[in-house]
Amino acid sequence: MPTVQIADAQAVTRALAHATTAASHAPSIHNTQPWRWRARGDHLELFLDESRSLAVSDPDHRLAILSCGAALHHALVSLAADGRHATVTRLPDKAEPTHLATVCADAGIPVEASAIRHLQTIALRHTDRRPVQSAAIDAQKLGSIAAAAESQNTSLHVLRPRQIFDLASATDRAQKIESEDEAWQAEMNYWTGDDRTLGTGIPDTIVAREASQTTEPGREFGHPGKMAIADTHHRTAVFAILYGPGDDDLDWLRAGEALSAAWLKATELGLSVVPLSATIEVTATREAVRQLLSGLGHPYLVLRFGLTDADTAGPPASPRLPVERTVLQL
Ligand SMILES: Cc1cc2nc3c(=O)[nH]c(=O)nc-3n(C[C@H](O)[C@H](O)[C@H](O)COP(=O)(O)O)c2cc1C
Questions:
Q1: What average pLDDT does the segment 252-280 reach?
Q2: What's the number of domains the chain is made of?
Q3: Residue 90 belongs to what domain range?
Q4: What single-letter DSSP state applies at residue 193?
Q5: What atom in ligand 1 is closest to the CA of residue 28?
């Protein structure tokens, strides 16, 4: 092989390795990281790893596939920052539904400043569950975040104040149904609590010490954590529903890509994001959330947006699996 081709093949291999590392930072339900990559020559194959999906809360793998979509978007951001055009084939093999995407790194392309910025944002993004700041969120910022979701064929519906009460009531109902189920409790205990030294799940350091007494929709993790939070709420949090046209695996994958695009944009604009999935996990409350969309489409995830507290360090980062556990080199 001519030297130039060898150098390009090596650059592609390096870009694919960077992409899977970037993907490991993606958000996932309960930090399950339910993805597995296979690196082969100039392409990456993305699989759903069912051993890290939630049999009780997410039996149809909707939220696991959404999480894989976020990892896919993170990988594409990294390839763009490495100056690689990528061709993506989503759900390439009907006979193998866990094969979610194939990403082929093709020609070199000029690197845009925005691609570098998005890559840097991947390292900064995290779930900040603290109460939001008192200042209201600029409508223009919400418009930019919605446009980022829209770029991935998924939409964002911002709830009106009255609808937030309906959402809070659906959230309470979902959490009651889930917490009365012993299998759900066992699953939650498996994925949350303690120090999470194996690299998955949600450590106690980022779970609130006491359940919130506010009327805002939130998330119960089934046990108290160690994070001290003020029990204030400023009514400035914005709640929105990520939604789209269908309820197929492809729709949930695209929803994950949209979650990543919207979250990176929000982080760049100084906003925190907390996904709230309890209402989506329970069929009856997913239907209640669908009604809040008044026929616009299928709900994928509820998101809370707020202004971040720029003066204090956010909660510690949650752990990640070593890359060797999620990437197979062929
Ligand atoms: C599909 C999905 C559902 C999630 N649901 C919740 C939730 O209900 N409550 C919550 O506090 N965080 C939720 N999260 C955030 C994850 O817990 C978080 O992404 C994961 O623990 C990794 O932490 P990081 O985002 O700080 O990297 C969800 C994330 C995803 C992708």
A1: 97
A2: 2
A3: 3-122
A4: S
A5: 31
